[in-house]
Amino acid sequence: MYDVNNIRKDFPILNRTVYNRPLVYLDNAATTQKPNAVLDAMHEAYVTINANVHRGVHYLSQKATDKHEEARQRVKQFINARKTEEIIFTRGTTEAINLVATTFCQNFVGKNDEILVSQLEHHSNIVSWQLQAARVGAVVKPIPINDNGEIDIDAYKKLFNEQTRIVSIAHVSNVLGTINPIDKLIAIAHEHNVPIMIDGAQSAPHFTVNMQKLDCDFFAFSGHKMYAPTGIGVLYGKEEWLDKLPPYQGGGEMIDHVSFKGTTFQSLPFKFEAGTPDYIATHGLATAIDYIEKIGFENIKKHEQELTTHCVEQLKQIEQVNIYGHKGPAEAVVSFNVEGIHHLDIGTLLDHLGIAVRTGHHCAEPLMNSLKIEGAVRASFALYNTIDEIDTFINALKKVIKMF
Q1: Which of 37, 220, 270, 321 has the CA that lies 20 to 30 A from 129?
Q2: Using CA atoms, how far apart are residues 102 and 97, in angstroms rounded to an integer?
C-alpha cells in the first residue's frame, strides 16, 4: 500500500512553514525536494571518502572512485543502457543537450542543413541548437503542434528531407504535461536514417524509461528533478554515435596523451567528462534512484495520476479557469490561467497562503505563443504530495480569485 504520510517523513523541508502557513510545495517540475537518504549518503561520502576520483592511488581516492563508477553502473541499470560507456555524467539536462548540439553540429551539420525541434520544447532544447546552427549556417525548423498541445505527426513526417540531420524533442512537456508519442517519433526519424535526441527531464522522474525499448540515439535527464542533488545529470548516447562525436571540453580526465605536437583522448565515457566530476552528487543520484525504485514506479505513477486527475477535476469546476493541455496522455503537470487575473498576481498571492507554484512562460516562449498567452500558473506534483494539499491549493486559489 502506498503510504504517502510515511514517505513525507523522509523529506524534512515539507515540515516547514511559509508566512506562518504549512508549506504546500507544488513546483516539482522545476525541482524536487531531497529525501534524508540522499542527504545522508552525500554527507557520509564527504566525511568518510572525500578525494578526487580516478587520479589517486591512495585509499580515499580509490573508495571515491568506486562509488562514482558504481553510480554510473546504477544509472545504466536504471535506464537499461547496454554499456556503462554510454553513460556520460553532466551538470544536468541543459548541459547534456548542449554537449550533443555542439559536437554533433561540429561533425555532421553544414550550411542549409536542418534540425527539427517541436513547438513545445523547453528553451534549452531550442536555444542550444540555434546557437550551433548559426555557427554552421544550418536551420532549426519547428515541428507543429495541434490545438490539443500534441505533436502533429503528419506535419512531422512532411518535414523530413535530404537535409534533415537530427531531431531533438521532449519526452514530456514541462508546461502541458503532454506525453509525446516518442516511440512513433523515433521510428519515423530512423526510417529517414536521422538520429533523434530525447529530453527526458520530465519523464525520468515519473515513469520507467528503457533505452533498449525506445531505441533513441541520445537521452538526457537531470538529477534535481528526481530527488537527487542539483548540478548532476546524465547524457545517454548510443556507443556508435558517441564514438563519432568530438570532445566537448578540454582538460584533465578526458585526455590520453598531451603534447604540443598533438593530443589524444580517452575512450568513452571519459572523453566527455573533462575536469573533476561531482563525484558526491553522482553518489546522491544513485541513492535517489534506489529510493525511487524501492517505492516503485508503478506506485508512484498511480499516486501522481490520482493527484493530477483530482487537480484537473477541481480546476474545471472554477468557471474562470482555463486549463492548457490534458486532452490526452499527460504527466503530473497542470498549467492554467484565470480570466482577468495576471498569472504572476495569482502566484504571488498563493505564495502568501503557503502554496508554492510556478508562474511565467516556463522557459517555453514558443509554446506560449502557440497558445496565444504570455504565461501561465503551473502546479506540478511529486511522490510526496497529497490530495489534501491539492484541496488546500484549490481553496487558496478560490480565495485569491475573490480578491479580484
Answers
A1: 270
A2: 8
Q: Which residues contact 95 (CB under 8 A, 6 or more apart)?
A: 233
What pTM did the predictor assign? 0.97
Q: How far apart are CA 192 and CA 32, in angstroms?
A: 38
Cis peptide before 229 (omega within 30 of 0): no
Cβ-contact 185, 196 below 8 angstroms: yes
221's grid cell: 535527464
CA atoms within 13 Å, Cβ hemisphere of 393: 29
CA distance 142 to 156: 9
**Spatial CB neighbours of 135, under 8 Å, sequence gap ≥ 6:** 105
Q: Which of 105, 216, 311, 363 is catalytic?
A: 363
Q: In b/e form, how buried is each residue of 54-88, taking b as 16+ CB within 10 angstroms? A: beeeeeebebbbebbbebbebbbebbebeeebbbb
Query: What's the DSSP call for residue 2?
Result: -
pLDDT (tens place) for every residue of the chain, 404 residues total: 899 999 999 999 999 999 999 999 999 999 999 999 999 999 999 999 999 999 889 999 999 999 999 999 999 999 999 999 999 999 999 999 999 999 999 999 999 999 999 999 999 999 999 999 999 999 999 999 998 889 999 999 999 999 999 999 999 999 999 999 999 999 999 999 999 999 999 999 999 999 999 999 999 999 999 999 999 999 999 999 999 999 999 888 877 788 898 887 888 999 999 999 999 999 999 999 999 999 999 999 999 999 999 999 999 999 999 999 998 888 999 999 999 999 999 999 999 999 999 999 999 999 999 999 999 999 999 999 999 999 999 999 999 999 99
Q: State yes or no: is 363 an active-site residue.
A: yes
